[in-house]
Amino acid sequence: MSLWPRREGVSLAQPSQESEPDFAAQRREMIERQLHARGIRDARVLEAMLAVPRHEFVPEKFRGQAYDDKPISIGEGQTISQPFIVAAMVEAMELKGKEKVLEVGAGSGYAAAILSRLAALVYTVESRPNLATAAQERLARLGFDNVAVHTGDGSMGLKEAAPFEAILVAAAAPLVPQPLLEQLAEGGRMAIPIGDEQTQELVLVKKLKGEIHSQTLHHCAFVPLVGKYGFTR
Fold first, then answer.
1. Backbone Cα Rg of the chain
2. How far apart are the C-alpha atoms of 85 and 105, rounded to whole Å?
3. Contacts with 26 (C-beta within 8 Å, 6 or more apart), sequence order
4. Is omega for the bond preceding 163 within 30 degrees of 0, making it cis?
5. pLDDT at 21 exceeding the cut of 90
6. Which domains are present in the chain?
7. How confident is the model at residue 18, as a pLDDT?
8. What band does 20 get if pLDDT is binned at 50, 70 and 90?
9. pLDDT band at 14 (very low <50, low <70, confident <90, very high)
10. Is 55 helix (H, G, I), strand (E, B) or coil?
11. Catalytically annotated residue among 2, 81, 108, 116
């Protein structure tokens, strides 16, 4: 099965679809105005963001807002992050195409789909069973077949598949979870929001010769990470 999603476009055999929004054009505008204009430069990341149909990863009632510069609710108190934040986190991973990646917080599956275009294997963990099931079905339907969706405590990582060359955490934690540090491969990179439950800083963590180095990339606001090493509920 091809990893490339189906091409959007109006079928001449189906006149009833002629009023559908031009999502491909909206993606191109998103790339130019929200990503490239704000400093995203990795060509592979921009190509992946252009190729993945973000509107397929939001609820039907919000499809008209899919390419807006904002997060969108996907139910159960969770959101799909704004496009710029997704691009910034993915770009910080500096993926070359052969990596094994862990994502914490599958949500709708959108970031995993982007990562799947840039790495060899993507494992994503979601704590909410309904969201995990929906993400798995959506990714399979769209042909992203190098993504494995797991249900569980993402703050614990996924020990059975470790180590990972890149870890992307799509939920805010008070501190970097120790299991994620242990599962990060030598030379690996992790992007994670650190702070309280309202505002955080997006932190890039690197493991070099067994030592942990970190730097702040952006201010951000994510939903809280729930689990042993996150914010308890």
1. 17
2. 14
3. 55, 66, 67
4. yes
5. no
6. 22-220 (3.40.50.150)
7. 37
8. low
9. very low
10. helix
11. 81
CA 63 to chain centre: 18
In our burial notation (b when 16+ CB lie closer than 10 A, e otherwise), range 56-73 reads bbbeeeebeebbeeebbe
Got the DSSP string for 92-152?
A: HT---SS-EEEEE--TTSHHHHHHHTTSSEEEEEES-HHHHHHHHHHHHHHT-TTEEEEES
> What pLDDT, in 10s, does the model give residues 199-227?
899 999 999 998 999 999 999 999 999 99
Q: Is the pLDDT of residue 5 over 50?
A: no
DSSP label of 77: T
Quick check: 145 pLDDT over 50? yes
Distance of alpha carbon 199 from alpha carbon 107, whole angstroms: 19
Contact predicate 203/232, CB 8 Å:
no
Report pTM.
Answer: 0.89
Kindly provide the residue ranges of all beta strands, DSSP E only, lying in 36-81, ordered along the sequence.
72-75, 78-80
Q: Is 20 left (phi over 0), alpha (psi -120 to 50) or beta?
A: beta
Q: Which two tokens stand for residue 161?
A: 């598949």
Count the Cβ atoms, other than its own, within 10 Å of residue 147. Answer: 23
81 is catalytic: yes
CA separation for the pair 46, 40 (Å, rounded): 8
Tokens of 175: 């501190």
Q: Could you write out the DSSP letters of every residue in 144-211?
A: -TTEEEEES-GGG--GGG--EEEEEE-SBBSS--HHHHHHEEEEEEEEEEEE-SS-EEEEEEEEETTE
